[in-house]
Amino acid sequence: MTFSTNRRSVLLGAGALGATTLLGLSGQPLRAATPSQGGTLRIGIGSFDSGETLDPQVTETKFMQNLQWQIRNNLIEIGAGGVLVPELATSWEANDDLTVWTFKLRSGVEFHNGKTMDADDVVFSINLHRGEESISQSKSLVAVISDVQATAPDEVTITLNGPNAGFPPIMALTNLTIVPADDSNFDAGIGTGAYILETYEPGVKSIVSKNPNYWKADRAHFDSVQMLAIRDVNARTTALQTGEIDAMNSVDPTTAGLLSAMPGIDLIQTQGKVHYAFSMIATDPLFADARVRKAMKLSINRQDMVDKVLNGYGSIANDQPISEAYEYHNPNIAQHEYDPEQAKSLLKAAGAEGLTTTLHASNTPFTGAVDAAQLFSEHAAAAGIKIEVSREPEDGYWSNIWGKKPFFASRWSGRANEDLMLSLAYSREALGGYNATNWDNDAFNVALTAARSERDDAKRRALYGECQALLAEDGGIIAPVWADFLDAKSSKVSTGDAISGDWDLDGNRCAERWWFTA
């Protein structure tokens, strides 16, 4: 199954934006034709937590996502353009009613400890995320599984509790990496991945070395990879400029143009599914009335956000997560415009005139989130809404603020398909998990469930379109902008021909996909 490829991924050197042949300052191609081997790739990562572990159930930050995919693999990989690529599974197919999925496994793949991977390892790894005792962030998504069995040494059969045409991408989630059966010492870092764990200091750094027995012959070109946890974007940028690191994520949009003009540095701009958001918990008394939620959406100047927060590296969004990068994007939803007078009218009808609230933010969810929150506060004042911005600590933001406070800054990087994105963040199944707005809408849940079992493409498109419209109108998410991923690298680092747009740093798999120019 493949997904929409109407996204763009461009690699920018000075003056190279929009060029068909992408050139750096020297006029030489930014990518080497043939990958070279060797060297240590040093990456600066801005999203991390000092309390993280290598337990795949709780893979949250960008640091941990990168590290997990350095040392471990999934059954399925998400390639550039959102294409599903066989990884530890060589193929998968469903029965006629889409309730049973059978995965054939790759043979001869070894874990770092020398154990040969088999179906029992896959069953164990999937079951980590199932059941009452699981602490997995993907628990709500694998709740669709009623049974998982090793039906042969190289075959796993998964039975669902209902039809689901979009099930396979669940096996590509960062949490769903494959680990050895019956081994819960996750911090040992054992996996089948491109690199072997040498050092991991949460909130500080990680070091991995090349796996000499890696089964992907065309990947893992570096001898080793070192990641440094560098929260401050200016510090990451300085580290790249001075040669202390070779690549970084989350470039500050306000300085991206200057960075791209510097000799020896390339800005990687990737348009995809990421959206910045301010989220309201829909069950909180302040936001329980849908008219109040709608008023908040009409109280933000989206173009101002694009201009001042993104510096033009993005576009206006419409309070729902399915962008044009998805196959079933609904283009017919009326765009929410900045309309303070209508917002005032809605608040008056809801008995909430002069609404006062606190917006909790840090720059952890996205670079510039605190400035964006302050800008929103200025916009909302015209509607008689007083938003007090509370700047929260960076460390622990996801565990202490996100989904805990009534009104908070957020970011979503998108998922492989519509069902994953909508199910993970907004469905009834995800309440108590990633459904941080606690929004529960009957019509939405009915349409989402129906879409999973619908084989007719036009009908499925209509159902996902209905979900998007309901979420935009009634949901607790204020999503004003689509933000391009902005990463940067040394010109000494080469990439493949296409960059993944599902996450930054080439889908958080740059360590496996990139190489040094010879």
TrEMBL record:
Chief place of localization: periplasm
Any GO molecular function: peptide transmembrane transporter activity
Cellular-component GO terms for this entry: ATP-binding cassette (ABC) transporter complex; outer membrane-bounded periplasmic space
Gene Ontology terms: biological process: peptide transport
Coiled coil regions in record: none
Database matches in InterPro entries: Peptide/Ni-bd, SBP_5, SBP_5_dom, TAT_signal
Protein's UniProt name: Peptide/nickel transport system substrate-binding protein
CDD domains: PBP2_NikA_DppA_OppA_like_17
PROSITE patterns linked: TAT
Annotated Solute-binding protein family domain residues: 84-419
Family: Belongs to the bacterial solute-binding protein 5 family.
Location within or outside the cell: Periplasm
